[in-house]
Design brief:
Strand order of the largest sheet: 4-10-9-8-7-5-6
Organism: Streptomyces katsurahamanus
Structural class: alpha/beta
CATH architecture of the largest domain: 3-Layer(aba) Sandwich
Number of strands: 15
Radius of gyration: 22 Å
Cofactor: pyridoxal 5'-phosphate
Strand content: 5-15%
Site (Plays an important role in substrate specificity): 231
Shape: globular
Largest sheet: 7 strands, mixed
CATH topology of the largest domain: Aspartate Aminotransferase, domain 2
Subunit structure: Homodimer.
Number of helices: 16
Number of domains: 2
Modified residues (N6-(pyridoxal phosphate)lysine): 232
Length: 422
Amino acid sequence: MTLPLPHPALTAADPELAALVGAEELLQAETLRLIPSENYVSRAVLEASGTVLQNKYSEGYAGRRYYEGQQNIDQIERLAVDRAKAVFGVEHANVQPYSGSPANLAVYLAFAEPGDTVMGMALPMGGHLTHGWGVSATGRWFRGVQYGVRQDTGLIDFDQVRELALAERPKIIFCGGTALPRTIDFAAFAEIARESGAVLVADIAHIAGLIAGGAHPSPVPHADVISTTTHKTLRGPRGAMLMSREEHAKAIDKAVFPGLQGGPHNQTTAGIAVALHEAAQPAFAEYARSVVANARALADELLARGFDLVSGGTDNHLILMDLTPKEVPGKVAAKALDRAGIVVNYNTVPYDPRKPFDPSGIRIGTPSLTSRGIGTEHMAAVADWIDRGVRAAGAGDEQALTAIRAEVAELMAAYPAPGLSG
């Protein structure tokens, strides 16, 4: 069994919270984490994110601050910016956004006015709340129009996207999302954006690490602006970045600060810098390729067990499953799998007849297990556990779930999680 990491000061000051942190460390160590937006950061990223940089206020940008005493902070932020530019090959990078949603809000502030038309993938089709969906501020402050996927293939129909863009003339077009298992055709989106006069924003939050590692095409030659979180496949702290061509640098920076935020979280900036340094190493490219290889192998094993995968498979880190043929709702399956030590999330599938809080599907991904060193040779076992877990969920068989949990824990013990071991 992996023991919790030592936290002597926290344990002395607040034993109740320390116990909860320790319990979470054990949970992350012992369970098979398949949520595609989660990962394990390195011990170096953990350490950088918990330093005395917490103590500094740094409104403004490097060399242009509203507070004194920024000699070290400016160097840290410049380091993160320079590394982002090098890893992604961009002309400009802003590492200050607090998370992905504020980063996207900054894009709207930079390029649109309230009431303007904006365009993105519909949330139930795999898009993100901040791409103009109605319940988000972006759908309330702007006129959101949405595209989707074909019902027969689960793939984006670019003829339909073009027709919608030319008819609606949006100021901004977002491509990317939260449940897209296929390669994003950035060139096709760029052509449509040019024809319709829109700013193209590539939201690569889920696939940033795959792009950095060369396992997914880059949007850099095609998109005006690139938005991303810094965790997920990039294996950094919970933060975000905006990257762009130099012509948009001033608009982006002004939108982030002072448009939306005050002082940046310097400890997060440091963690981002470390993660980008790690992403520049040859080992990270191998990691990115392994994430995709594991996802494809897992998809094949699930298909062989009769699972219905949206679009028929995956090109990246993510698999979206429609459990309707299994006659088990997604929420029921997700909760049962959690009891079996397999952490997934229930998720809407395209054209889902069920409600979002009780949908037909589950969403899984391979970033976390790949970070542990688990490979394609294990994907048959993972698929078998999912298959047995879903069947146990339908039958209400708690003993079967308990048995799966023991098997999962045995494999997890053999492949310690980065940042939690040692």
